[in-house]
Structures are given as structure tokens and as C-alpha cells.
Amino acid sequence: MAQSRFQILFWSAYSRVYDGLLKLRPYADLVADSVDRLDVTEGAVVVDLGCGTGNCLNAVVAKYKGLPTELIGVDSSPQMLKTASRKLSSDRRIQLFNASLLDWLGDRSPDSVDAAISVNVLYTMQPSDRERFWAGLGAALKRGGSAVVVTTDRPGIGPVAKEHFAEVPLWRAFPPRLVAVLLMNMVIWMFESNSVYDPASLETLVSEAESAGLSVVETQRCYGGSVDGVDVMLVLTRD
Ligand SMILES: C[S@@+](CC[C@H](N)C(=O)[O-])C[C@H]1O[C@@H](n2cnc3c(N)ncnc32)[C@H](O)[C@@H]1O
After folding, report:
1. Which of 112, 130, 149, 239 registers the highest number of CB atoms within 10 A of its CB?
2. How many domains does the chain have?
3. Any residues with CB less than 8 A from the CB of 43 and at least 6 apart, and which?
4. Lowest mean pLDDT among 114-128, 163-177, 213-227
């Protein structure tokens, strides 16, 4: 089932405050840790599936500097991409596609991506779309390529808030844009409790990835700590 128009509109509305998340320490750490796990070599084609406002691509540029030759962001929300474009357009290697990432993966030539990252996107998909996601990723990734997929598998924000408060003084903890982000997250939880979004367990994700020909190099719980975190990270390759 493709994304509904309403869901695309939701992400476009969210884009107006989304980068308030950069003030949330666990989110900044999540982006940095995810990009750290990506193996980017010289000449690499790197794609961010569901790139949003471009924070992961921005971190790839900062970490790997001149190594990649192509940096591709795909997102179905034009407004998210507008912000990404403002952030990244000075880098001539950047290409942003306003498309369903499932269609983009389906159209991509096999073995044409060296490194793929997708952070907090997969939970928005129903099982049939996740199947298309893994099949598309398994086909597009080159042998020996690297992928990092992060997604939530449980509701709530308690562990994220706890980690944030541990590092940021209370009087600086909630700038207005971050409060707006928290309100948008309530809509996401509503989607989850109404099964519009369908977060899968880590075991299911591992099994789906392996069925698509990917090897799981490492998994870890994150975004709120390695024990209580609300996200799981899968570091993958294709043998
Ligand atoms: C929570 S945001 C994550 C953005 C970014 N990856 C990050 O970590 O900041 C989810 C993004 O996925 C995009 N998205 C969701 N489903 C998509 C799909 N089927 N195709 C393309 N983009 C999608 C949304 O438009 C939104 O920008």
C-alpha cells in the first residue's frame, strides 16, 4: 500500500519544525552514530532513503568529505526536500528526488549503490511495503556494499527524554521548535496506534532483510540508550 496523500501532507507540515530535532541530543547522536556505521569508500554512490531535511546526508558530507562521487536523497515530501536542498545545494554531488523510495529503488539499476542509509522511515510502512523496501535495497546494493537501517520498534519517548535531560540543562531543554516536534510525534503515535504505521520487531526486520539477500553485520538498540532505546539499528551488507 503506497503512502496516502494525507501522510505526505503530514510530513510536509512536519518539515516546518523538523529540524527542531537537531536540538534533541539523542537525535543528533543517532544521526552521527548511523553515519559512522556506514562504510563509504572513494567514488561511492551513497543514497539516503527517506532523507527528510537532509540531516544524514549532511553528516555524510561532514564525515566522508570528498570520498563519495554521488550523494542521493529520496523523499516523498516536497517540503522536506526543500529544506534539504537549502542545506545541501552548495555540494554539487547532491541529487534530490521527490519520489516514493519504493518506486525509486524499483527503478534503480541492480548493483548500482555502494552505501545506503535510512533512518526512521521503515516504521511508516506496512509489511507489504517493507517487503518491497528490502527487495529493492537487496537488488540495488552492490556486493560488499554497506547499508544502515534504523527504525523504531516501540512507542514512546521516555528514554529519549531521559537521555536528553541528562545532557542538557532544564532551562535549555525545550526550545519552541522542539516542543512543536513533540506535538508532531503525538500524531505519529496516533498513526501507530491506529495501525496506519506498523513498526516491526527487530527479529522480523532481521528475517526480512536476510530473505532479501542481505547479511546482518550488527544490530543494536539506540535512540534513548543501548538497553531502553526506542529504535533499532541494523548494519547490513550484501555478500
Ligand atoms: C521521521 S522522517 C526521517 C527523516 C530523516 N531520515 C531523518 O532521520 O531525519 C521520515 C521521512 O520519511 C519520508 N518517507 C516516508 N515514507 C516514504 C516513502 N514511501 N518514500 C519516500 N519517503 C518517505 C517522509 O516524507 C519523511 O521525510
Report:
1. 149
2. 1
3. 67, 68, 69, 114
4. 163-177
